[in-house]
Amino acid sequence: MSGLDRVGKGRVIFTLLLFLQCFIVLTGGIVRITGSGLGCPTWPECAPGSFTPSPYQAESPLHAWIEFANRLLTFLLGFVALAAVIYAIAFIPLKRVRALAGLQLFGIIAQAILGGITVLTGLHPSTVVAHLLVSILLIAGALSLRQRVYGAIPGASQPTLLTARLLKALVTVGFTVVVMGSIVTGTGPHSGDSDSSRLTFDLRTVAWLHADIVIFFIGLLIATLIAIHLGETGATRTTLLQKIYWVIALSLGQGAIGYLQWFTGVPEFLVAFHLIGAVWVWLSLWNLYITGSVTSSPSGSKGAQYRVE
Ligand code: HEM
Known about the structure:
By secondary structure, the chain is mainly alpha-helical. 70% of the residues lie in helices and 0% in strands. Protoporphyrin IX containing FE binds at residues 29, 132, 177-178, 181-182, 184-185, 188-190, 207, 210-211, 214, 251, 254-255, 258-259, 261-262, 266, 271, 274-275, 278, 281.
């Protein structure tokens, strides 16, 4: 018994949850890029006295509806997360799955409150940055949850200690890239709307620091690729190679968009592509990490096991 015997077709909820966690990052980006963050100037109401956009409010209807649609998506996400928790309790007797589903629900409620604080502080850049970073963590949790429910992890991969350590370093540096990217956004023209305050860093310095960490990240990816080539064998080698090639390809593409947007004055449509790219790189990186770090012993007992050469 793997604990997944009664999972059934309803497990698609977990894929939907992952998709929506990624999609809301894009819609949140559209809110910022179109300067619609205060389209609903208050929270939890959209306009004073109305939970939906009001024809009498001062803000433009387009901005109000863009911000309101983003709020509606949070409700949908919360609803899907609740369904995932109920499904896990009913059909999946695995503590880790139930805990991850519960964390998703908790995280979405926290995001709704943080979104409210963002509006009530007039789109303060530190809350805008925090909002994105919490979403990035929720995406990692949703992917781990989805892969567990689909039986993709824990797998039979048993990387060497060196590869396992490199994967951990990659995720740490990858997350730092994302943190630095969101600081660049919080400093630059697309944080909040045109009137909201900005982080007080020098934009050029933080953008180059962001790009420098990306270069280090790509170097680390190549080192990990070599370690996998030289140190791994069998199914572990094949699986890890397949996944790391995805991370490398996506990171190079994302880096190219990053430089292009910087040298063309950060036009909105490239910023949107860069945001989609960031989510994609993060998904591929986390997928590589959980494949290589969650291992099971040949006897089936749980717990991390590394092959010691
Ligand atoms: C693996 C590669 C990269 C990743 C994962 C990444 C990730 C990110 C993230 C998460 C953001 C915040 C997005 C937002 O809040 O809208 C960002 C912003 C930004 N990134 Fe990157 N980035 C990468 C490469 C680069 C490179 C090489 C450059 C070149 C300078 C660059 C330039 C920028 C700029 C200028 C912004 C701010 C855009 C704005 O004004 O909204 N990025 N990046």
